[in-house]
Batch of 2 targets.
Target 1
Amino acid sequence: MSSAELSVFIQALGVHAPARKLTNEELSSMVDTSDEWIKTRSGISERRIAAADENPSDMGAKAAAQALTRAGLTPADIDLLIVATMTPDVPFPSTACLLQAKLGLRRDIPCFDVSAACSGFVYALQVGTDMMRSGAYRHALVIGAEKLSSVVDWSDRTTCVLFGDGAGAAILATTSAKNVGVLGNLLGADGNNAELLHCAAGGSATPATPESIKAGKHLLRMNGKEVFRHAVRVMSESCERVLAKCGVKSEQVAWFIPHQANIRILEAVASQLNVSMDRFPSNLDRYGNTSAASIPLALEEAWRAGKIKHGDLVLIVAFGAGLTWGATLLRWHEPTR
Ligand code: ACO
């Protein structure tokens, strides 16, 4: 069989969310905000916050362990690991290498990170899918893991209310069956708008200094209004483009699983696509924006709730810092429980 004939599908999903919940009420005692403002403007009620010693590699390893158990696989079965994160444990080595060691994966496999902020999971899924289609790998782990609480400015009410921590993992497998798993995808980026959502210091251009840290330059800064505007446009266009590419109409899609950034962004995208919000499952109220972890968290929740059925068309779509965006259309192949 030629490798071009292989389809790539999600064989199993796993998730991990830190135990600590931070509610809007608690945030209201930290900055000048209110439960009502946060809920109305974003749809968020609470978010999870990782413990000081709970890093993306730890959360990702727990999510991956659950996915492995559900798939009936062992760490030795994994022959490719890709981690999407904008909050790596350390600048180097990659979070993937740290996670490989924690999970006890084989040493003869590629392990690397993908940096595409909130679009990270969609980017990593496409990279993994394309590598799998070559026929060289049987099982890949694609993980989104984030500790956004470590880069949020807890005195900035315009951002600190939005983000949370967590991880989600997908095991990719191949099949010779046609028209299943990943049917089509697209990715895009616009570095001219990099400053809309960024961290100004801490990299090689501006290494962290006592002054830069005092000025909060190592923390996340965002132009919320502009990001909102771009998000609605690129998520709607990405959905339309990937559907056109696959010759599928939006009414044929059973579930849209968007990056969980803000409920108003999701409502605007649903409205642009003329799709009911009933087909846009959301867990924003309980997790906030978990960046690269948000899509696998939402996908796993919708699958576990029995919403997503074998054969359903599922469209995942994301946008994030970069700016970056991406969309993937899947024909759901029932993952093992
Ligand atoms: N509590 C109370 N008031 C607040 C808060 C808060 N937490 N934050 C801002 N305000 C105030 C502002 O200061 C402003 O007051 P003013 O009118 O006196 O100046 C007022 O509320 C309105 O602020 P806006 O910025 O206009 O509020 P908006 O309706 O645009 O909502 C928000 C802000 C929620 C940030 C929205 O713009 C948004 O969701 N943007 C997209 C963010 C996003 O999705 N980011 C993730 C990108 S993905 C990634 O890669 C990480």
Target 2
Amino acid sequence: MKFLFDSKEFGAQYHYEGKDLGAVYGKEQTTFKVWAPTAKAIELCTYPDGAQGACLQKYPMEKQEHGVWSVCVEGDLEGTYYTYRINIDGKIRETQDIYGKACGVNGSRSMVVDLKKTDPAGWQEDFFDRKGQTAPAIYELHIKDFSSDPCSGITKEHRGKYLAFTETDTTLNGQGKTVTCLSYLKQLGISHIHLLPTFDFASVDESKPLDDQFNWGYDPENYNVPEGGYATDAADGHVRIREFKQMVQSIHNAGMGVIMDVVYNHTYKADSAFQKTVPDYYYRIWEDGTWSDGSCCGNDTASERYMFRKFMIESVCYWAEEYHIDGFRFDLMGLHDVETMNEIRKALDMLPGGRDILMYGEPWRGKETAMRKGSIPALKKNVAELDQRIAIFNDDTRDAIKGSVFLEKDAGYINGNEELGIQIPSCVLAWCDGKGEYMPKNPGQIITYVSAHDNFTLWDKLNFTLLDEPEFYQRKEEVLQLNRMAAGMVMTSLGTPFFQAGEEFGRTKNGIGDSYATESAINQLDWKRAEEYGDLVEYYKGLLTIRKHFRALTTKEREILERFSFMDTNLQETVAFHIQGIEAEGDWWKELFVIYHNMEQKKEMELPEGSWELLCDGKSCVPGGLEPCRNTIILNEKSVMILGKK
Ligand code: CA
């Protein structure tokens, strides 16, 4: 029989609503269930090891309703590795469980796990005040980059691992002076750490020494299992789970939330566990039989298909519940349909504290995709179709401030293309003014940023545009000045601010943009710079403090736009605006006056009436006030000036 996956008949007969797929562990017995409507027969195979050795035992599975195959095995199977041998049209292929919660080294065998056994001490009490984060600020970090640097102060065996996050009170070279790693992040003023892929990915060989291997990890293997390369032991399926939880617990104890970068849009290879289990169901295929490749990674998963949508929803909720994850960043969200994204939002909302779990994603895709007709892709132009608590990365703001991410010499407003001044008020208003070709429902739908792991670091981009011969490792005042200006603009704009780890100390990757598999030495955070560029770090801290104490900047509701009024200026030279505060609890000022002065010369400007405190003069940012001013102010060259009124 031919299966027409998108037909009503297929849906009626085979869509499975149960939430018990995978191995459901019990001390007396474990039940295995696989959804595989096209299979002729399936055997469960158990193994004593995650990679080595022959099958211990085979158990034929029974076909039940809705295409689900099941077997119940008596006894305590905790720690037993397993696979399924799936017979489709006489061809037998062996695969791990797509719903597997644990796995062996390199993930080709799943493992039965008693998750309670993986909880670190105190896990039941683990807590992060999601609701209390009134001024969210997101820090984008790769686990290995965080602590690979030998100067990081982290013990050697934890460098590049989950456990690096459990070390507190670390300092540069252990000298007790400049704090590093988690202690550093704790005092920076961010609310959430966004981790680059941490689910099990395939591009690092966990069975080989990991020191010389590096990858960002956008190549999913097992969605519901942590990556093994960051664990101290990848072979024992328990270790990565326990250490991941220890990491989360430690970040929570430091007062920050944890966001996962999730990559449901494609799998590492087309011949994945999904494809072996139900061939061609989970992927998009063009009518001529060629595979859709909107991800530019060889395949696109089909979020609009019932069982993949279900998989995504359950997977996200699983991470939120089991691992206490506080937010999700969706890679190439434009490849997913808005219905799936909104369903995920609804499912998260049902969890305790779930309404305050963040959701955001990239509202674009690599190429066209074969999404089923009638589905709406979660692209930027469709932002209004997304739930108002799903946000998108705003590439318009990113590129308007400092130039295209694709062309190294292309300039933005601050570094040579003053004509983009016309777009800057829209950047400030998180594009809720309707001047883009899309209409966010509110500032809460926008991630405001100028740097991320993709493309050049802000420091490198500014070097390329300012200097004929970039000197990435030199401290250059003109680069610093524009770094401060870019950050000042992001932090005084609506939307949720986001920045790549180390942007605040002039992180360089020596001019390399696409460093996804470049050596660790180029990618890792250079903790010496946290000291060398300590003045820049202080400047970022000041900006983050202002946001915390002036809630009009962090309000997600659309009405807040009415409190922003722009002065009549030549936008190429100066953008100036007044913000009437909402006088929220904890606010330090009633009003702010912000000026982006984009000229190489100083200039005098009239101030709105009253007595003002200068909080930021483009060189330093001191929320307690640098000096009082009245009537006029001298604008520093290439600066963001911020004034507050009590
Ligand atoms: Ca892996």
